[in-house]
């Protein structure tokens, strides 16, 4: 081979490696060399190669469609996906540049206030947040400030605020107490009583109580605290002592279920002491992760020193948040869902989801292996406990199910019911009756397998199963 031929062939080789027209997505040099993991690589990649590397890494993850652990939406219509792309380019906080986003946000808040039966003579306000955790912190912060202002006006001590809630709350409540320096008065759970009521709250109330927290659809069992009873207790307390203690309802999961499935059930702004409610739009609002809301029954429930008031567009607008910049994708997706489904659409979907949850619950109970902890009447979450865990535990069943791709968390309940270990399956819109049958069959097959191959030491295996322990409700939700 002469020198010209050699150079030509070298040039062709190099061209085929570098040219975007010839280089295949796979089979280039990037597939035989490791990717930099600790520094931004020096060299560039072609867009589709970079895309594949990232997308392929995602193949190592669980399948969202089989993720029974999360309450968060894992499927939306293609039209919503289009709006999500559109919203990604607009920072929600840029109200000067994108005033219509603020208008949409306000519409969403008013629609939710109406859904939660706000009385007509109330001037509700609220904001959308990144999720229920931020929403809860904003609500409780407002209650702390109201309590402090009242006490300061009367020349009373403001150094020891406290908040009362059950051990059935999500971890974000404890986060609030720790971050914002408020004493937690936590009501422990008991075996067979996984929610709180007026009798639990009464002995803990005092002049430093900023609020009582209740949950509509607890993370652990999907049950509902006795909100009416607690409301009555606080009304009596107000009459007796003059102390006006607000209730904050954590409706992260139940806020879009109860209004459509149990509209007669009274838990919301119909109750006098309920002054604020949060909801996770990314749960049964049926949008992807990244949105919650907090709604105050009346402007007077939010001390005006907290939000930043913006006066333009001929009216007042408020900015009340813990963070600043965020995309507007999910806000637009939620607005789309409200318009697209309407209340009748939500009713249909929630009824279908509840029906599939009840079906699965009934079949698991009939199998004779499980005790059902909840009746899926408030939330489409199936929470079960093994009747006999002498040979294997719920953690082992969770491990077995994961071999078929199912993500079903096993976890112990909060104190003082920590000896109760449960499995939780959250039923969502994209979980069909067929999938319910498949999950049921796979659960029973797991049990047969464990009966025939019992783990050598239940206690040890139980402790080893740390991966599943991490998938407690605090993790994936
Ligand atoms: C009852 C309850 N409250 C609050 C949260 C926290 O919500 P988010 O994940 O939207 O911050 C959750 C999450 O699962 C929850 O179940």
Could you state the CATH homologous superfamily of the domain at 82-336? Answer: Type I PLP-dependent aspartate aminotransferase-like (Major domain)
Describe the main β-sheet briefly. 7 strands, mixed
Query: What is the gyration radius calculated from CA atoms?
Result: 26 Å
Briefly note the structural class of the backbone.
alpha/beta
Strand order of the largest sheet: 1-7-6-5-4-2-3
What is the tally of helical segments?
14
Number of strands: 13
Helix proportion range: 25-40%
Q: What are the defining features of this structure?
A:
7-stranded mixed beta sheet, binds pyridoxal-5'-phosphate, disordered C terminus, 14 helices, 40% helix, 4-stranded antiparallel beta sheet, globular, alpha/beta, Aspartate Aminotransferase, domain 2, 477 residues
Write up this protein.
The protein has 14 helices and 13 strands. It is α/β, with parallel strands linked by helices and 477 residues long. Among the domains are: 3-60, no CATH class; 82-336, 3-Layer(aba) Sandwich (Aspartate Aminotransferase, domain 2). The strands form 3 sheets. The protein has a 7-stranded mixed beta sheet with strand order 1-7-6-5-4-2-3, with helices on both faces. A 4-stranded antiparallel beta sheet has the order 10-11-13-12. A two-stranded antiparallel ribbon has the order 8-9. β5 (247-250), α9 and β6 form a beta-alpha-beta unit. Mean pLDDT is 91; it is low at 460-476. Pyridoxal-5'-phosphate binds at residues 71, 131-133, 170, 172, 215, 218-219, 250, 252-253, 280, 292, 477.
């Amino acid at each position: 081979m002469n020198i010209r031929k050699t150079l030509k062939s070298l040039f062709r080789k190099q061209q085929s490696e570098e040219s975007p027209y010839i280089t295949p997505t796979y089979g280039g040099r990037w597939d035989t060399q490791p990717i930099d993991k600790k520094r931004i690589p020096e060299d560039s990649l072609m867009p589709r190669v970079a895309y594949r590397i990232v997308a392929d890494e995602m193949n190592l993850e669980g399948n969202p469609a089989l993720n029974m652990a999360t309450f968060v939406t894992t499927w939306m219509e293609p039209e919503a996906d289009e709006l999500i792309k559109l919203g990604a380019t607009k920072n929600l906080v840029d109200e000067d540049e994108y005033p219509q986003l603020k208008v949409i946000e306000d519409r969403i808040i008013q629609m939710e206030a109406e859904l939660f039966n706000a009385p007509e003579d109330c001037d509700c306000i609220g904001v959308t947040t990144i999720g229920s955790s931020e929403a809860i912190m904003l609500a409780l912060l407002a209650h702390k400030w109201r309590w402090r202002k009242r006490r300061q006006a009367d020349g009373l001590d403001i150094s020891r605020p406290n908040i009362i809630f059950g051990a059935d709350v999500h971890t974000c409540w404890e986060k609030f107490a720790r971050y914002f320096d408020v004493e937690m008065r936590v009501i422990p759970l008991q075996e067979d009583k996984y929610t709180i009521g007026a009798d639990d709250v009464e002995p803990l109330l005092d002049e430093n109580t900023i609020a009582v927290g209740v949950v509509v659809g607890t993370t652990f069992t999907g049950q509902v605290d006795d909100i009416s009873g607690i409301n009555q207790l606080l009304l009596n307390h107000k009459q007796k002592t003059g102390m006006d203690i607000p209730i904050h309802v954590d409706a992260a999961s139940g806020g879009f279920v109860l209004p459509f499935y149990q509209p007669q059930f009274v838990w919301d702004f119909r109750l006098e002491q309920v002054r604020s409610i949060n909801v996770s739009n990314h749960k049964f609002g049926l949008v992807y992760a990244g949105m919650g809301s907090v709604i105050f029954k009346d402007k007077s429930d939010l001390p005006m020193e907290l939000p930043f008031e913006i006066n333009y567009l001929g009216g007042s607008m408020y900015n009340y948040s813990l963070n600043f910049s965020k995309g507007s994708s999910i806000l637009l997706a939620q607005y789309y869902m409200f318009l697209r489904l309407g209340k009748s659409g939500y009713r249909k979907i929630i009824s279908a989801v509840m029906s599939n949850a009840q079906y699965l619950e009934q079949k698991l109970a009939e199998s004779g292996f499980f005790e059902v902890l909840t009746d899926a009447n408030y939330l489409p979450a199936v929470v079960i406990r093994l009747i006999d865990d002498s040979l294997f535990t719920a953690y082992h069943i969770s491990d077995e199910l994961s071999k078929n791709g199912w993500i079903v968390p096993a976890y112990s309940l909060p104190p003082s019911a920590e000896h109760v270990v449960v499995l939780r399956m959250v039923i969502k819109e994209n979980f069909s009756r067929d999938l319910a049958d498949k999950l049921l069959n796979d659960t029973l097959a797991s049990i047969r397998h464990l009966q025939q191959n019992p783990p050598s030491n239940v206690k040890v295996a139980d402790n080893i199963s740390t991966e599943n322990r991490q998938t407690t409700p605090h993790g994936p939700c």
